[in-house]
Amino acid sequence: MTTGLRASMLYQALEWPDLRWLLRDPSMAGDSEPQMLLRIGYGPEGPATPRRPARDAMF
Length: 59
Description:
Blueprint: E1 5-10, H1 17-23, H2 26-29, E2 37-42, H3 54-57
Antiparallel strand pairs: 1-2
C-alpha cells in the first residue's frame, strides 16, 4: 500500500550562513546547526533512484 507521500532532501540553501541561522532552533539544537531540510508532501511519483545491490556494499 502506498500513501502517495514523497520526500525530497534539500541542502543547498543551508550552504548560506544567514539561512542556516534562520532555521536554527537553539532550544532543540544547542550550539549545532541544521545540515539538511526534508520536504515531505504529496506529488507525482518520480523515477526510481539507482541502487547498488546490497552484496556490493556489505563487507
